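User: Okay, second chain of the day. Same drill as before: sequence in, structure tokens out.
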Amino acid sequence: MEHVPMRRIASLISTLPIAATSLSGTAYAEEDANGTQIVVIGTGLEAPPAAPAYNVQQIDRERLLGAASGRLEDALSSAAGFQQFRRSDSRSSNPSAQGVTLRALGGNASSRTLVLLDGVPVADPFFGYIPFSAIAPERLATARVTRGGGAGAFGAGAVAGTVELESANADQLGLVQAGLLANDRGETELSGTLSPNLGNGFAMLSGRWDRGQGFYTTPVSQRVPISARARYDAWSAGLRAVAPLTDAVELQMRGLVFEDRRTLRFSGADTSSSGQDASLRLVGRGLWAFDVLGYVQARDFTNVVISSTSFRKTLDQRATPSTGIGGKAELRPPVGNGHVLRLGADLRLADGDMAEDAYSAVTGLVTARRTAGGKTSDLGLFVEDDWTIGALLLTAGARADRWTVRDGYVTESTPAGTRTTDLAFASRAGWQGSFRGGGVLDAGSGVSLRAAAYTGLRLPTLNELYRSFTVVAPRSGGGVAISATQRNPALRNEKLEGFELGIDVTPADGITLNATAFDNRIRNAIANVTLGVSGNTTTRQRQNVGAVHAQGIEMGARLRSGAFGFDGSLAYTDAQMQAFGASIALNGKRPAQTPRWAGSATASWRPAERWSLAVTLRHTGSQFEDDLETDLLPAATTIDAFAQIPLHNAISLVLRGENLSGETIVTRLQDGSMDIGTPRTFWAGIRVEVR
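Assistant: Same drill. Structure tokens below.
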């Protein structure tokens, strides 16, 4: 067969339309040009054969490394419809706004998309945001984006889709990989990995440090004496080790520590997030294939709010410690007759507490001390079977989730310690079932037809249940606009119902086209609902509205011709709120922060080893800032570029350009008060790769 570099084996196998299931006792395997078998270790079990029944987009390592910003969220945006609550990336946004969603099923800052790293959920246990600054693209092999509900492992939470991140192994990384870049504002990015082979296994030690003065997120016309650049300083360090125990069983260990500090809008408005994560995973690829893992996460978050009129500190959310503990066990027994059966269970436990002090904007003295927190849990049992019948693949799966919300509380005290509020909320629990099913038909002549239907659920986060918050921003004409959002400990679980139809066409070698029409509805959708406006204050509360109903079409194109490549993705989504009762004013309105159109197109040229040139055009349509469609954020179209050019032996020159067109990207708009996103930015540096 044609020679394929070892670092690309895993990504090539994972992009096959139907992944073979290993029953022979070996890991992923290929042969090199000499016929020698290459065993690729460090992965989980192969994707189920009928995974293509759902709308899946694979992002390979080259595209992850080719993001102009060097950020993972930028690379994932090549899947049209992928979005965070705001258009800022993890250098200039509040971490608590880094919730991920797909298919315009957003409306608040929590994640409606399940994000897994080597099989482990990575969302913050208290807020539900994704710590993007801690997940470096250079450590990854692939990212697989699946739109629509999930009923497999950790399926609770996948109401808008799933993003599966897979770490790179030693063959993909090489012995040493390092990079040092700086941009035209003097900001720097330093990263490195050391990945030696150890016996039949390997270890990976990695680190990354990003720091810089940032840019002004406030337009010139709205700056005040304490307006500040979006300064950031983030580092992370990871250790991963993989040790084969037998020919068919391997042990995988991963540890990660990180810290991220940012300044947002005003001097002194400092935000931080930190974490320590660890997991152990045992993967068996024998006749009785299995995947067993356990993990623990310790996270914290702080946030300081500065008054835009008195320039004093008004709130110090000084600590938000939270813990996530969980695991899963999956078994694939050899049932034969074209079947691949998955049986398993998973568990997630989350607990967190918030401590904050409120200050007078006039005197600067503490006026109140508040605490809040609680616990949630989810135990899921799942079964799924894929059945191959000639050219037809069928799949069906179901989950039963036992969920709990308990030990919720809110307290408030005077500075002297006198308790003025002391609330304890009743615990709740229940069972909820969900399913998914579909099929893929090879219709011949390079055409595949697919269909799928699914349901799902998402528990409210501790943040949504127990934390209230206030945002104060200057009005464009003077004064301030105050937005106060209240907690709601009575929030119910979100419930997904959806179906889709799709077609995949391969008209010629190297050309793949696809289209998917979908209809998804999240009942009891949690949204920030406006209760009323009094003077300059808008009061909102997190509430369950009737539903968020999204209908649309997603299209993709992939072309490979020699050294040239093209990857395109386009999504149109008509999303509407279906509301009644107290939230009837939202009925028929588009959810906050959800565009109708989103698209991405990347043209690349890779003429030789370590050569890479790419240009990306990305468009995000207009979207409303709030639930009542008061302020409209205009559409934004950006152009990014990336180049890697070998210089000498293992050293390459890397050039990157963000927002080359200089587009003004409005990320927040409230009564004329505006924040903007990344301006035109140029990066240059070197990358070292030692095999």
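The first helix runs from residue 9 to 14.

User: Thanks, on to the next one.
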